[in-house]
Structure formats: C-alpha cells, structure tokens
Amino acid sequence: MSKKCGIGEYIDKEMSKRDRKIRQLRFAVAVLFGVIYALLSGCASFDTQMHNPGTGQDYKCEAFGWGWAGTPAAIILHHRCVTTMRERGYVEVRNAD
Fold first, then answer.
1. Which residue has the higher pLDDT, 49 or 19?
2. pLDDT for 31-55, tens place per residue?
C-alpha cells in the first residue's frame, strides 16, 4: 500500500472541490432551463356547455393543451367544436357566476 504525500492529498482535495463546483453548476443550469421551459410552456383548458333547445340535448366542448404547441391546438379545437355545435342548432349555456 502506498500512502499519498501531502502534495497529492492537496491536489485530490482541490480536484474534489472543482468537481463539486462543476456538479453544482450543472445542477444550477438544469434548474434554470427547467424554470425557463416551465415559463415558456403554458397550458390551456377550455370548456363550453352547449344546449340544443329543439332536442333538449346538452353537449360539452372541451379542449386542453400543454406547451407551445398544445395551447394553440386546444384553442383551435375548442373553437371548431363550438362552431360545429352552433351550426347544428346548439347555443352556449352561460353560467350564472
């Protein structure tokens, strides 16, 4: 077994300090990217209750999306649903809030 000399121990301590700093920096960068991603990727949820006065049937147009692509897709799908149901004679039911 060989014993490390004082200089080798000092170098090993410095290397481990440097490695710790690198790991901390990588973690900080990962957290930063996670926060930026969360801020840039919103989510959307839409629902509209529809009622057909002629038939008495109810229908609920629902759409949700997440992220930079999902949110616009949810908006488009919800709009299409409401438009289609209006064409079929349905009207929006407003909540009494």
1. 49
2. 998 877 766 677 788 899 999 999 9
| Cα 29 from chain centroid (whole Å) | 19
Q: Is the pLDDT of residue 4 over 60?
A: no
Three-class HEC string of the chain: CCCCCHHHHHHHHHHHHHHHHHHHHHHHHHHHHHHHHHHHCCEEEEEEEEECCCCCCEEEEEEEEEHHHHHHHHHHHHHHHHHHHHHCCCEECCCCC
As a whole number of angstroms, the distance between CA 47 and CA 63 comes to 6
Handedness of CA 45, 50, 94, 89 (dihedral sign): positive
User: Which residues on neighbouring strands pair with residue 65, listed in sequence order?
Assistant: 44
**Contact indicator for 12, 44 with CB cutoff of 8 Å:** no
